[in-house]
Write a structure and sequence with these properties.
The chain has 382 residues and is an alpha/beta fold. The protein has helices at 15-26, 45-48, 54-65, 87-107, 136-146, 163-168, 217-235, 261-279, 297-308, 321-331, 359-371, and strands at 112-115, 152-156, 175-182, 206-211, 239-243, 283-286. It is built from 11 helices and 6 strands.
Length: 382
């Protein structure tokens, strides 16, 4: 998976995958008796064509075979998505990881799965965007639908709007996409506002909560719990697919949100509980953005894997010394001492009251007012 590499100066460093896998291994998560580790495979062109155009797949293959070429019209060879040798195979392998996760749920081999190398939510049907070549989240969702799953809820908590996945299912009432992200006024891709609610054949199938820059754990979790559980329960999916980009962290240099490792762990726990309540625990979780590769990404995604496995790692757990030594020796960086940050993750329930003078509450209410009535919910009280 580390072949997905845009170059040494690109924010999407494959080191974050190496460090995440290493930390999860040292914490014993991958050795839990209920956990199976399966190899991701290179998705076939036919599989990719379930959500991508064949012309686009051919273009990715072409520039990956000859990196002197570029195709900016398809987003290939841009500053965000520079061309590199083997681009097709690398992107298709990340996609294959999420397809394998979907296969595991379809076959009944497992009720839950994680592909922390996935979460490439900016890729469109015919264009690369925002570090994303093939949209593995959309591919997994489509595979579930093609297998007979009637409805899928997609929950995206990356700091950036999950625009590619939303667009692919824009007019499909079988898929509910919910994106909780920093407002497009201050962050790429500049989209995902409250009135973006899906196509004419699927009004309410797209839900967007555009958070003000600077939103911290309290506001982020308040917004999540004011929108996500109510709509997912009303929609009644058979499976939840989630994207856990951890670039909303306060130390991430590409965004302007202010969450903690602790807050992101809390969100993962909430999605786990929602999956248990609504769809018998059936849940596929993916990674996504996240550019603080030592202190944030490995901890957040190790927590995610442990939660999916049903064995959450306590926040006061010591980071294994073997992993800290590896980080120092291989990357020359200082790793954190604990799996948490002693952050205050208390959040105020929406039912306690709504403050119209608060920017966070205004954006939450904007989303609730436009979407909740479509599900028979009251935007003020539900």
């Amino acid at each position: 998976m580390s072949a997905y590499n845009f170059g040494p100066n690109h924010p999407m460093s494959p080191k974050r995958l190496d460090l995440t896998a290493g930390l999860a291994r040292e914490l014993g998560i991958l050795a839990l008796p209920q956990v199976s580790v399966l190899e991701a495979y290179v998705a076939s062109d036919d599989e990719l064509a379930s959500v991508h155009t064949r012309d686009y797949v051919a273009a990715v293959r072409r520039v990956g075979e000859d990196p002197s070429l570029s195709d900016p019209a398809r987003g290939l060879g841009t500053e965000d998505d520079p061309v590199f040798a083997g681009m097709h195979e690398a992107g298709a392998r990340l996609a294959g990881g999420s397809l394998r996760a979907a296969e595991s749920l379809i076959s009944g081999a497992t009720p839950r799965a994680v592909n922390f190398g996935g979460g490439m939510h900016h890729a469109f049907a015919d264009k690369a965007s925002g570090f994303c070549i093939y949209n593995d989240t959309a591919l997994a969702i489509q595979k579930l639908l093609d297998s007979g799953v009637s409805k899928v809820a997609y929950i995206d908590i990356d700091a950036h709007h999950g625009d590619g996945t939303e667009k692919i299912f824009w007019n499909d009432p079988r898929v509910l996409t919910i994106s909780l992200h920093e407002t497009g006024i201050s962050l790429f891709p500049g989209t995902g506002f409250a009135n973006d609610i899906g196509g004419p054949g699927a009004a309410g199938s797209a839900v967007n909560v555009a958070l003000p820059a600077g939103t911290s754990d309290a506001g982020w979790l308040r917004a999540f719990h004011a929108v996500v559980p109510q709509l997912v329960e009303a929609f009644g999916p058979d499976v939840i697919v989630s994207q856990h980009g951890c670039d909303s962290h306060r130390d991430d240099e590409l965004t302007h949100l202010n969450t903690s490792v602790d807050g992101q762990r809390e969100a993962a726990l909430s999605i786990a509980a929602l999956a248990d309540k609504v769809c018998g625990g059936r849940w596929i979780a993916t990674g996504g953005g996240g550019y603080n590769i030592v202190s944030v990404v490995p901890r957040v995604w190790s927590h995610l894997m442990a939660i999916v496995a049903g064995r959450p790692v306590p926040l006061r757990t010591a980071v294994p010394e073997t992993w800290r030594t590896y980080v120092a020796e291989k990357y020359g960086m200082v790793a954190p001492l604990l799996m948490g940050e002693d952050a205050d993750t208390w959040w105020r329930s929406w039912e306690v009251g709504y403050n119209p003078s608060d920017a966070l509450d205004r954006t939450v209410m904007a989303t609730r007012k436009v979407v909740f009535p479509l599900y028979g919910l009251d935007p003020w009280f539900d």
